[in-house]
Amino acid sequence: MPSVTVAPAGDYLSLSLGASRLRFHAIWLRDNAPDPETRAEANGQRLIALRDIPAETIIAEASLGGGGLWLRFMPENKTVTYDLNWLQNHAYDRDITADPGWLSGGVETWDAALMVSVPTGDFAALEAGGTALDDWLGAMTRYGFGKIVNGPVEDGALFRVVDLFGHVRETNYGRHFEVRTEVNPTNLAFTGLGLQAHTDNPYRDPVPTIQVLYCLESSAAGGENMVVDGFAAALRLKAENEAYFNVLAEHCARFEYAGEANVCLTSRRPMIELAPDGELIGVRFNNRSLAAVQDVPFEKMALYYAAYRRLGEIIDDTAMEVTFRLNPGEAFVVDNTRVLHARKGYSGEGTRWLQGCYADKDGLRSAYDARRRQALVEAAE
Amino acid sequence: MPSVTVAPAGDYLSLSLGASRLRFHAIWLRDNAPDPETRAEANGQRLIALRDIPAETIIAEASLGGGGLWLRFMPENKTVTYDLNWLQNHAYDRDITADPGWLSGGVETWDAALMVSVPTGDFAALEAGGTALDDWLGAMTRYGFGKIVNGPVEDGALFRVVDLFGHVRETNYGRHFEVRTEVNPTNLAFTGLGLQAHTDNPYRDPVPTIQVLYCLESSAAGGENMVVDGFAAALRLKAENEAYFNVLAEHCARFEYAGEANVCLTSRRPMIELAPDGELIGVRFNNRSLAAVQDVPFEKMALYYAAYRRLGEIIDDTAMEVTFRLNPGEAFVVDNTRVLHARKGYSGEGTRWLQGCYADKDGLRSAYDARRRQALVEAAE
């Protein structure tokens, strides 16, 4: 049986729900009130600012009933009812300390063992929507990586991949770029060289958070693609040597690309990026565009380089990599803040032609979450 | 007279240049070697990875001459010459501790006093390039804000503003969005309501880092625009109460927008964002889309709300704001990771029509830096 107690000063309340006792502050409750004067019913946006809520707001009265918590706030003399499930789902009276490098719920790290079950969607099924799309978007949010097969072998088909979840992020490379051997390459990606696993464009800030690579021709020998989970690599580094993990997280690297006229892209960001509370939120790793690191003190630079070297060795470890060959009409998509991709060297004989473009993962997560929300609504009807 | 000494173990050297003594590690020097086997001459990208450089690399020999530092590395037995100016500019043997909230060189905070000298560019002069564009791009990087005047009163003219420095970031709102009163608005921006100063789309991750607002019609009463330097506001908060600054920087807020079908955008990022070494790199402030904050422990939530309230009061202080009225053919551009913008309420009589779009500031900085680099090359010729 739920019960509620208001603190003597009225500045917070305690809600007992089953075994849990959850405290909520008056100001937090008032700011998150779900009534139509506080939140626009149509679009869910808050209609008032904190300046519209008195700083001395207290809970004057509280009662429970019908799955709801009814409150009267003073000095506004405003009454609001909260859904108990909503309160339980949004509670903050909990132990929220976690080790640096913790992962958001729903994120799952992987290694070469994923090779036998690469998340793969059929192009037509994905375009039709339904569970095929749900599953593929879900795999993208969980693993940061997914393949698409049986697509058209057609210039620009990669844009139809982006249409599944978002919008193209145009850059100085254009709305899309062609990946094939060039005679005077502006970028080493446009040669037949093998490339170490890397994230793209770390010299951009913000980096493009999604990359799509779509195969149109593939008769050259070699050129296999591989992907590595940067989160798995960073956490393995931490397990092996916490000082290595910390030095890469606590200092900014610098990246630069100025390989064409009118372009001079620079960034100053860490190789391992944590949220203020230690959530692992990004990995940047790219030997080609790492600039001179200047933000590590002399006393720590040897440690920094040892850590950078070890992270590279982990990334190069075949136990970490998922390798595959893209055939024409096949694509792969990566979360570029997390998953590194690489290409083996290929010969000049035959052809290899991929088209690539960037997009953003907030759009992908939004598409997935909106579809799940809609499914819940439909299930409830 | 410069001099160089190699440490007995060969793992670093000391370079005396005038009054400064700069130490550089062997591995750092080898990784940053400028020779054509290490760096591609055409595009500046590194051709090797750290795995190609022996971990036991030492400096076997060093000498100075002709403005350069000549080194021989073992075990590769590789000789490389470094430019002394380059070494001085990229030195890391320095005191790099700074108070949290430090600002990158070239960033200048501002308040209402900027009103008399708003950075403004003439549309045609900017499109012609030259110093007008240099000055305006420079002001954008320094202040995070600039106006443009005397532009065409023409649907889509805002894209010509983006063409000055980068590329449109398309979102669920389209390549651009119309800001005028709507009957059933999906977003409160499309009403006549006054809006508190805010950054746009904090529920997106990454947020769009540049916003352009371009005026096409303006005969309604009210609707003035104003901008506030979020960096100045955050630093004023810190000066007033360091605990307030810290609690907003050390905990993630949550933001959400789900005001239209198929959209459910959520983010978990702090209101005041610092780099790992304390550089102030971003501000997110938006009462409409702040979701329930869940990542602050119960013991700190009252402090968090007091800090959030005080930051809002500082942002609302007219001493912080630059106000102006956009006439047709005028636009303003803000760094959306730093500068908040607001609109005063306006009446339904007359019309007010703006077009808005997003872009990214790495492109803007790149355009500016590339132009400066080119100017240096031309000056040297």
UniProtKB/TrEMBL annotation, chains A, B:
Question: A Pfam family in this protein?
Answer: TauD
Q: Could you state a single Gene Ontology molecular function term? A: 2-oxoglutarate-dependent dioxygenase activity
Output the SUPFAM superfamilies linked to this UniProt entry.
Answer: Clavaminate synthase-like (SSF51197)
One GO biological-process annotation of the entry reads: carnitine biosynthetic process
| InterPro entries tied to this protein | AlphaKG_dependent_hydroxylases, GBBH-like_N_sf, TauD-like_sf, TauD/TfdA-like
Q: Which residues form the TauD/TfdA-like domain?
A: 121-358
UniProt superkingdom: Bacteria
Instruction: Kindly list the cofactors needed.
Output: L-ascorbate; Fe(2+)
Family in the record: Belongs to the gamma-BBH/TMLD family.
Q: What is this protein called?
A: Putative gamma-butyrobetaine dioxygenase
Q: Which organism is it from?
A: Phaeobacter porticola
